[in-house]
């Protein structure tokens, strides 16, 4: 097995205090989570709300540091990386949140929204930037006439296509997709998921796909991990976990889906 990402013994605690008069409350968002993501796979992370899925997604992309444990990308711990290699890591690992958390600047046209990540990550000329913008639009199934549109002139599905185009602009290898289609209606969900699956093949990507939708997990994932209260209770190939769950909680979850 060619491991792209190795997540080992990750723990993360949050301390929340609603007012100075209240006792601080500890939340163990992740408890000793360990699993690997094989290159080229679609690893689905499922589990109920608050089980720690997004926290793990943020840690896997170095947007948040864990209290304990490590994340290795191609054998390298992403929390102890030299400044020089950091730029490469930022290119290679990208995250797509659900739409509400991934706002597009309402004053900027699609072409400007796409030029931004290209300019940040790739050292290319103005001409090549324009060429790349056209290519990116094609990859996410938008025609060139969308270049001059503002976000409010786009449908939800089209906006999510622009968000995906921004995420793949740096030519990444690993993408965390945190509920990427949950704000869309069912037919649009299918279209965007199919686009993501096509892009995975075309660009040789690996996905960590966070979802609470077992139907999408079953249809699009190769592997799956089940989270409950910050603990990864079961992991394996999607058909093994969903057809023959070993853990009680997984069984309950899968039965409620059938
Ligand atoms: N920045 C934060 N500060 C304090 N608590 C947090 C923070 N982020 C997450 N939490 C808490 O950690 C727990 C796990 O949250 P997380 O967002 O990872 O869950 P999730 O599985 O993604 O849920 P959902 O399916 O609703 O998106 C929750 O109890 C949440 O309230
Ligand atoms: Mg979440």
Describe this structure in words.
- This protein is globular.
- The mean pLDDT is 93.
- The protein has 9 helices and 10 strands.
- The strands form 2 sheets. A 6-stranded mixed beta sheet has the order 6-7-8-3-9-10, sandwiched between helices.
- The chain is of the alpha/beta class and 258 residues long.
- The chain has a single domain, classed as P-loop containing nucleotide triphosphate hydrolases (Rossmann fold), CATH 3.40.50.
- The relative contact order is 0.17.
- It has helices spanning 53-60, 83-92, 110-121, 126-139, 156-168, 186-203, 214-220, 238-243, 248-257, and strands at 3-16, 25-38, 42-46, 68-73, 76-77, 93-96, 174-178, 206-210, 223-228, 231-237.
- The site of magnesium ion has 2 residues, from α1.
Strand % is 25-35%
Fourth CATH level, the homologous superfamily = P-loop containing nucleotide triphosphate hydrolases
For the largest sheet, list the strands in their spatial order.
Answer: 6-7-8-3-9-10
Helix content: 25-40%
Q: How large is the count of helical segments?
A: 9
CATH architecture: 3-Layer(aba) Sandwich
- Hetero groups: adenosine-5'-triphosphate, magnesium ion
Under CATH, the topology is which?
A: Rossmann fold
Largest sheet, in brief, is: 6 strands, mixed
CATH C-level class is Alpha Beta
Order of helices and strands: EEEHEEHEHHHEHEHEEHH
Class computed from helices, strands and strand pairing:
alpha/beta
- Total DSSP E strands: 10
Mean pLDDT across every amino acid position: 93
How many structural units, i.e. domains? 1
The coarse silhouette is globular
Indicate the low-confidence ranges by residue numbers: none
In angstroms, what is the radius of gyration? 19 Å
């Amino acid at each position: 097995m060619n491991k792209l990402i190795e997540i080992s013994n990750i723990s993360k605690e949050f301390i929340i205090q609603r007012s100075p008069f209240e006792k601080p409350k500890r939340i163990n968002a992740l408890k000793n989570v360990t699993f690997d993501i094989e290159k080229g796979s679609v690893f689905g992370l499922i589990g109920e709300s608050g089980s720690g899925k997004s926290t793990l997604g943020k840690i896997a992309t170095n947007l948040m540091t864990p209290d304990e444990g490590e994340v290795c990308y191609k054998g390298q711990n992403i929390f102890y990386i030299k400044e020089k290699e950091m730029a490469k890591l930022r290119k290679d690992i990208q995250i797509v949140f659900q739409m509400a958390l991934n706002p597009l600047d309402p004053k900027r046209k699609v072409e400007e929204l796409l030029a931004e990540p290209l300019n940040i990550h790739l050292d290319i000329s103005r001409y090549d930037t324009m060429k790349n913008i056209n290519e990116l639009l094609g990859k996410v199934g938008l025609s060139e006439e969308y270049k001059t549109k503002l976000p409010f002139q786009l449908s939800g599905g089209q906006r999510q296509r622009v968000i995906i185009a921004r995420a793949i602009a740096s030519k990444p290898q690993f993408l965390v997709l945190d509920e990427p289609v949950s704000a869309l209606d069912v037919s649009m969900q299918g279209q965007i998921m199919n686009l993501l699956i096509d892009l995975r093949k075309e660009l040789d990507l690996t996905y960590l796909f966070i979802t609470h939708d077992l139907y999408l997990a079953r249809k699009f994932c190769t592997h799956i991990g089940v989270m409950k209260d910050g603990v990864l209770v079961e992991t394996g190939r999607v058909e093994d976990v969903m057809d023959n769950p070993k853990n009680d909680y997984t069984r309950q979850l899968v039965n409620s889906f059938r």
